[in-house]
Amino acid sequence: MATYSGISTCGSVSGSTHQGIIFRTLLTRISKKHLNEPNQPKKPRALTYTEMMNGGQQQMDDVTHQQELNLQRRKDLFERSVEHLEQSFKTETDQEVDHIGGDAGI
What we know:
By secondary structure, the chain is mainly alpha-helical. The protein is built from three helices and two strands. The chain has two domains: 2-36; 49-104. β1 and β2 form a beta hairpin.
């Protein structure tokens, strides 16, 4: 008696018949698996927000990540500089208006 893939056979079953049984068993298992997981056509999917922001890539490598961090730091620094300049300009303008007497009410 020989055992193949968990199936016992007697010596009276020929090798080709046994292979046919194994083949049919495998086909049955495969077809049941595919019935549970239907094949869907491969079509492009919509990008996630993260992928869109990364130029279509889901994850950044270390170099790109470091560049992004440096760019964000520079952006923050420039925004603070602009805010400081706006505040300085506003203060100067307010002082000039007060000096000229713009608040006297004409």
